[in-house]
Design brief:
This protein has about 575 residues and is α+β, with helices and mostly antiparallel strands. About 65% of the residues lie in helices and about 10% in strands. The protein has a 5-stranded mixed β-sheet with strand order 8-10-1-2-9, with no helix packed on it. Strands 3-4-7 form a 3-stranded antiparallel β-sheet, with no helix packed on it. A hairpin with a 4-residue loop joins strand 1 and strand 2. Helix 2 packs parallel to helix 12.
């Protein structure tokens, strides 16, 4: 959506584009703390699912929704308060005049945005990526239409050959309103997808309840096979104590029918893997009442018999009750086999995964904060330095600020792909760690390496595109020659840090999945504030390179951050000696 806003504002005015860039930096710098905190769900939900704790995963999700509102309300107030700080940023008055209404329009979207973050984490952990893709694509299409109407007003309608409706041109304010509306719409789409997911889960639970299961009390289903001159059909169900009942009609004896009921006469041999009170034996007498000349007697041994004797072999692990129903037309031999198996599943605590479900029980919000707050501060450090770069670029004029906005939008477009791969990597690594087992670290490392390879591949394509066609790409977002002249070299620098940017995004995701979130904060503080920002100030202002020097500092900071995160993940997943 940011790319759509930038593209249309770039054809509206340079000051509107620059104001929206500054406003976006301010809004995101404030809301990113809440966003990062809710990304703590990336550490909790996949690991709970990997451990088989669906209920714990859902409790963490609902706690995340409550936390989104709790954080979102004060964040909204901070966004509104930031408007009064704009004059102190040192930007041109024309830029401030556009940034102020933009921030006002975006404030209402903070809470829906944070709710969407929690919902995306829950859906991604369950592998439900289709609604995420549909929401993003549909949201951008809707944003394009709303931007055209709200930014340009009737002029936008005229470009489409439509009659005027008296719509005013709102500029940056219109772009902000469109983004807020679309954020709300996409969040509602996520919510609908989760409702469908929960319905399918409940349906699966009901199906599982209705299915025959074997527990310590023992239950079995037996099947009867018959050999004889005629056909026989028998159905066995077993659970409880042994009793046999046989019912048969003898068509060979004219119209006489025989019905007999027997309390099992015979013996059952029982052997099983469960606990059994010796071997089951039943002793009784079989009695038959006959209507006509036919008399039915039999001896039952965990399986009834009619006009003959039934032999049954039962393997049981508990007390078993067998009811046989046999329909015969002549001499029939029925052999029933009943097998009962008791399965006991035990979960052995694991050094990485046992604490996940244990800590989630009743402490979901605290666990989200424990894992997510370092992520929020990490994002604040990362996004804060880019927001600061935008403010610094505004010191060099509206054209420089607009060029920075164009370049950062294009760089963010490729970066979003790396973030998506990082989120997927977080889920995959979290599932591996949550499943436990001696090979969990090796599997987590393998999945992290796959994510890094994919991220670097995507960012390599982005780097080549920025190197080969920078002016053409920038021209898609603005038609002002002075802005294009500054944006072109910025995209060359963006090409240089594409690999570093992608690597640090994916490595941060892998570390989130492994539950290691504090290092991402310190890596960004060291990379951006100890290394990157001083270089930006020295080259941008000291060496007189302007926006170009600021971007060189950003590139250095991203490279250091990526190196720290990759080394940490590799050490964290080292196989135990």
């Amino acid at each position: 959506m940011g790319a759509v806003d930038t593209a249309l504002l770039g054809h509206y005015s340079a000051s509107a584009l620059a104001g929206a860039g500054v406003g976006t930096g301010v809004v995101f710098a404030i809301s990113c703390v809440g966003m990062g905190t809710l990304l703590g769900l990336d550490s909790l939900v996949p690991r709970a699912l990997g451990a088989g704790d669906e209920a714990g995963a859902h409790r963490a999700y609902t706690a995340g929704l409550r936390l989104a509102v709790t954080i979102g309300v004060p964040a909204t107030l901070l966004v509104l308060a930031a408007r009064w700080l704009l004059p102190f940023f040192g930007a041109e008055q024309t830029v401030v005049a556009q940034a102020d209404p933009y921030i006002l329009g975006r404030a209402a979207g903070v809470v829906p945005f944070l709710l969407g973050v929690a919902m995306r984490s829950y859906l991604a952990a369950h592998g439900k990526t289709r609604p995420l893709v549909l929401a993003v694509v549909g949201g951008n299409v809707l944003n394009l239409a709303l931007d055209g109407l709200l930014i340009f007003g009737d002029r936008g309608l005229a470009r489409l050959g439509l009659p005027p409706l008296g719509l005013p041109a709102l500029g940056a304010m219109g772009a902000a309103a469109a983004t807020t509306l679309v954020q709300t719409a996409t969040t509602l789409m996520y919510a609908a997808a989760i409702v469908r997911l929960r319905r399918s889960q409940r349906a699966a639970e009901r199906t599982g309840t209705d299915a025959a299961t074997v527990t310590d009390s023992g239950s079995a289903a037996g099947s009867g096979t018959a050999a004889g001159s005629d056909s026989a059909a028998g159905s066995d169900s077993a659970a409880g104590s042994d009793s046999g009942t046989a019912a048969g009609s003898d068509s060979a004896a004219g119209s006489d029918s025989a019905a007999g009921s027997g309390s099992a006469a015979g013996s059952d041999s029982a052997a099983g893997s469960g606990s059994a009170a010796g071997s089951d034996s039943a002793a009784g007498s079989g009695s038959g009442t006959a209507a006509g000349s036919a008399t039915a007697t039999g001896s039952d041994s965990a399986a009834g018999s009619a006009t003959g004797s039934d032999s049954a072999t039962a393997t049981v692990t508990d007390t078993v009750t067998v009811t046989d129903t046999v329909t015969v037309t002549d001499t029939v031999t029925v052999t029933d086999t009943v097998t009962v198996t008791d399965t006991v599943t035990a979960t052995v605590p694991d050094s990485d995964s046992d604490t996940v479900t244990a800590r989630l029980a009743g402490n979901e919000r605290a666990e989200i904060l424990r894992h997510g707050l370092p992520i929020g501060l990490h994002l604040l450090a990362e996004i804060g330095v880019f927001a600061a770069a935008g403010v610094l670029a505004a010191h060099f004029g509206a054209a420089a600020a607009a060029a920075h906005s164009v370049a950062i939008t294009l760089a963010s477009f490729t970066f979003s792909a790396a973030v998506g791969i990082g989120s997927a990597t977080a889920v995959r690594v979290g599932l591996a760690i949550g499943a436990g087992g001696p090979a969990r670290h090796a599997e987590a490392r393998r999945r992290g390496a796959v994510g890094l390879a994919l991220g670097l591949g995507v960012m390599t394509l982005g780097a080549l595109t920025f190197l080969l066609a920078p002016r053409w790409l920038a021209g898609a977002l603005t038609d002002r020659p002075d802005v294009l002249d500054i944006a072109e070299p910025l995209l060359w620098i963006a090409a240089l840090f594409q690999l570093s940017d992608g690597a640090q995004a994916v490595a941060a995701g892998a570390l989130r999945g492994a539950g290691e979130n504090r290092i991402t904060l310190w890596a960004n503080v060291i990379g951006h504030y100890v290394i990157g920002l001083p270089i930006s100030l020295a080259l941008g202002f000291g060496a007189g390179l302007g926006a170009l020097g600021i971007w060189l500092g950003l590139s250095a900071g991203l490279t250091v951050t990526a190196a720290i995160l990759i080394v940490r993940f590799w050490r964290l997943t080292a196989p135990a000696e």
